[in-house]
Specification:
This protein is α/β, with parallel strands linked by helices. The protein contains 15 helices and 15 strands. Strands 1, 2, 3, 4, 5, 6, 7, 8 and 9 form a nine-stranded mixed beta sheet that branches. A six-stranded mixed beta sheet has the order 14-13-10-11-12-15, with helices on both faces. β7 and β8 form a beta hairpin. The longest helix has 19 residues. The model has no long low-confidence stretch (mean pLDDT about 90). The structure holds adenosine-5'-triphosphate and magnesium ion (MG). The site of adenosine-5'-triphosphate has 19 residues, from α6, β11 and α13.
Length: about 400
Amino acid sequence: MKEIILIKNGELALKGLNRCNFEDILIKNIKRRLRELGEIEIRKSQSTIYIEPKSENFDFEEALERVSRIFGIAGFSRACVCEKSIEDILSRSVEYLKTVAENINTFKVEAKRADKRFPLTSPEICREVGGALLDAYPHLKVDVHNPELTVYVEIRDYAAYVRAEQIKGAGGLPVGTAGTASILISGGIDSPVAAWTMAKRGLRLNAIHFASPPYTSPRAELKVRTLLKKVAAYSGTINLAVVPFTEIQDEIGKNCPEDYFTLIMRRMMMRISERLARQSGSLALITGESLGQVASQTLPALVTTDSVVSMPVLRPLIGMDKEEIIKISRKIDTFETSILPFEDCCTVFTPKHPKTRPTLEACAEAEKRLSVDALVNKAVAETAYSYIE
Ligand code: ATP
Ligand code: MG
């Protein structure tokens, strides 16, 4: 029996003139994510996208799993392909729905006849298919108001399809429709969630990670790669830039007042990130900051970090509390990795009494003894690049 995946795209429908473009990007994303699983053919018609496996050993279950994580898909379903004859539709419905039918008691059938040349009307198709299912599975009853299962029969141009309930998709907009931005990724809980949240709005992601060996272990970087891989299951390929940050931290430690350590470190991160972002075609930076969560995330502190860059800094978690953030991190399966206990470069140099009400003047004063430009240039030059997919 031949099965296909039917996709209903979500917000796309609202986008008017952009719609074709959005659909094309979505289709490209689907192709890229299913590529390894075997050959497929993709067709679109009337706001539905049809994915038809073409190779024998196509991993259908894995394809469904992957489709459930592609942004821009509101809902999808698996469907059985039938010839456009009522006999074929009846025999295949009975066979295709066997397992589902055995586990429920009530159902109804809905039919849609897009191809009006088909000899039976929609109500007639419903009656025939309903009758065949009742004959084959005598424990079943029809319930048109509150059925446990709705069976959909669609007569389209190419073929007829029988399917059960729709599965909820990842929602959002297709990645790539909103441009590209760079996520500053640590090994913590917040930044992977921030990355996922913005990819959901259609942004393609580049990632920037600051590593401070030997203060941070190679395992900390590996953890970041694992986290990004989990995000990439939704966002598609992510370009990762790993920036050597040890020298900058040492210089800050030697030359700056302790209560400004974290802030100056964050300002250095932002300066370097903006440079890397411009190089890689990103139009904005993304961080996992949430207002008031720690001393460096008070409003005055955010003002001092924003003031060193001219690019917009997107902070999708700014108004969320930890519980809400953790809920998403569990959903996208980054939580367990994020709580692994490897030091990140922020925790190594945490001052005992960080400034919560810093001023721009005091930051500038504290940075006077640093060769800011030279340090930024060197870090950018020594950055290492790789792909995560
Ligand atoms: P997270 O859980 O994302 O680590 P956090 O609440 O621990 O966030 P901080 O450690 O103060 O907060 O970092 C704030 C933000 O700065 C992070 O969300 C992330 O975007 C960025 N950031 C922090 N450390 C790094 C790093 N080593 N490399 C890249 N970005 C970082
Ligand atoms: Mg952190």
